[in-house]
Write the structure tokens for this entry.
Amino acid sequence: MTSSSDTRSSATKQIDVSAIREFGEVLLTPPVRLCFIVEEKYENEVMPGAVVDVLRSCGHHVDVLRPNGTVTDLWELLPTDAARYDAFVLKTVSSGPGQSLLEAAAAADVTTVNDHRAIRLARDKAVAAVRARAAGIPFPKTWFASKSTLLDQIPADSYPLVVKPNNGSALRDIYRVDSPDELAQLDIDDSGSLLAQPYLPNPGYDVKLYNTGDEVFATVKRSPLHPGADVVEEKIPVTPELRSLARAVGRVFGLDIYGIDVVETAGGWVVLDVNDFPSFGMVPQAAWRLARTVLRVTRRQAEARASARASAPTVYRPVLTSVAEARQ
Ligand SMILES: Nc1ncnc2c1ncn2[C@@H]1O[C@H](COP(=O)(O)OP(=O)(O)OP(=O)(O)O)[C@@H](O)[C@H]1O
Ligand SMILES: [Mg+2]
């Protein structure tokens, strides 16, 4: 994928010696070939570029595919006998092109991090709500509306409501609506489907739980629905209860690298949002942790595929066997 390779040189990056002591596994794992799909929005952000830098500095081969800047030869996603990529990695963006490419790679039975099915479950908030609820994860009752005029069908005794875009992210277009009259006054962007939930009374801050794949971290963040709240945004200790809630969400969705937003209510902690590959702000050595997880998942999936092939040899018949064939 030469047209899309990142030109940054890993040789210019300083290797952090203390990180290598703790994360030697990243350095000692035999080199793998990875393709990071980087959406336009993240081209100049810390993540996922910092993970790419760590992996390269440890001798792994990482190409960066920028779907917003290059035409992609889909046949280059195929696994050939030269095993072009061991895994594809995506930090998704709402309605971005990266998800199609990740799923295309998965369609050719190439490992994806996170798992492409898990990303689909988390990315669509309606799907995520039902997935969480079905598995017994505490989650607010949620209505789906294809346009804002339908929201007046929600019973008046469910107010106050929170209305948000179904494909929302980065706190866009989130409204607290206190009454049906207020709903009628609102000019809600109707370009996509909407979700509505009862507003859950909370202290004015979210706890963001991040799972880097090896450990859960927690930070406090002011809720956008409480802009004036007196909140110190900081990293906090993770209680066993929060850790087990975060891990349960990971298992239910099948995510390896993810974050969840939770609020503390009178009835206990409630999950409001599940994000595959968040930015891991304030998480110490996040890039190293994530690099290690990417390698572990890649290795685990390679082993699972090998044993699946061994137990069902007649089912697995790769159509393409060489790079030359794949180019046609
Ligand atoms: N039902 C609710 N009750 C109380 N507060 C809510 C509710 N839904 C959302 N909020 C508040 O709004 C914030 C944003 O909601 P949500 O996480 O669903 O949207 P988002 O656009 O995905 O945000 P981001 O991706 O930036 O985390 C929540 O973190 C929470 O503070
Ligand atoms: Mg959120």
Q: What stands out?
A: The domain at 2-114+283-326 is CATH 3.40.50 (Rossmann fold).
